[in-house]
Amino acid sequence: xxxxxxxxxxxxxxxxxxxxxxxxxxxxxxxxxxxxxxxxxxxxxxxxxxxxxxxxxxxxxxxxxxxxxxxxxxxxxxxxxxxxxxxxxxxxxxxxxxxxxxxxxxxxxxxxxxxxxxxxxxxxxxxxxxxxxxxxxxxxxxxxxxxxxxxxxxxxxxxxxxxxxxxxxxxxxxxxxxxxxxxxxxxxxxxxxxxxxxxxxxxxxxxxxxxxxxxxxxxxxxxxxxxxxxxxxxxxxxxxxxxxxxxxxxxxxxxxxxxxxxxxxxxxxxxxxxxxxxxxxxxxxxxxxxxxxxxxxxxxxxxxxxxxxxxxxxxxxxxxxxxxxxxxxxxxxxxxxxxxxxxxxxxxxxxxxxxxxxxxxxxxxxxxxxxxxxxxxxxxxxxxxxxxxxxxxxxxxxxxxxxxxxxxxxxxxxxxxxxxxxxxxxxxxxxxxxxxxxxxxxxxxxxxxxxxxxxxxxxxxxxxxxxxx
Length: 469
Description:
The protein folds into 2 domains: 9-249, Rossmann fold (3-Layer(aba) Sandwich); 262-330 and 366-467, Adenine-n6-DNA-methyltransferase TaqI, Chain A, domain 2.
């Protein structure tokens, strides 16, 4: 199946042992393996564990959508499973439940990997198919619906479902907003090593969920968390779809909330500009084609340049056709820019913004919001090991797409806000809430940063002006 990453045998065994911890199988129990793959590693692990422990082996159903993988799975010497070549997310699976156990590693397919028909169908049949959903979220919902009362599910998935907005409906489902009368208890979240899958850098977690008897409350509300450094703690997960990041990462940020967020005190928090052809539009300062500077150029800065020298002395420029008010001249008005750009017309016409969006061939992929860009602003890298923020006080630099920027509102203390963003409180909040990238880096996404609490001191001038008016 598209998005399928085979589970290493050692990880399959580890998760199978977790499935049966204080919960050994009994005669007549049933187990489900969604998206089993060619090797059905979880089924192999279960059979071995049960035989070694002298417990009954549950009757198993292994479901695989890919015909070739399903055929290979059928040829395995795994006696307790029946392999079904079917779409686990299809309506035909409803007849197969209930199951006492569900064990698997759902395929990771982002929404870009789905056809328009699939998106429409999934959105009409799954509560968690909201926004820019990933396929593994739907596997969660379908698997939970097939659990028997007191049944247990263990899934290996990306950890980001614990905090990204698109997974909010799933978090709601397992913390009090289940399907129908069902309720669930997230018993454990185990963040396993980022190199758990060979040749794949990921931040996987193993999640254990138990379904309660209909009409009964979950047996205990705390969730056991095991982090990658080996420490453990107990938490009560936030309900209502809220991010679990701070709770799971063991961050007590209860005293940080001020009632004011970064989104409240900024005009914009956005990524820098994407031209769709930086190789054409970006030049080192000493390589600008004759006739472009200064009328048709704007200083720019990349993430790499920020690391080496901050935003005070940019080493490169954009060839920029836009006026200071953000409007784009007609082609006959381009002058020297037009003469230069026509040398690259074929390359520029092949961009999606021209082919699909119908933009003029000399436009950038994104239309720059000059009214915000050409103001003093705070800039930062989109991915960082340690979040760092720099002042761009000239209001002349246009950040590239690897650099994010924020523009404080009138009346907001620029320096106080900058100091706060580079301080320990804001850093701890970002470490608790931002999505993880490879090698321990953080993704400083604008939609997350807008929620960052900020101290009221940064807005005193603004508040005073509002009170005066």
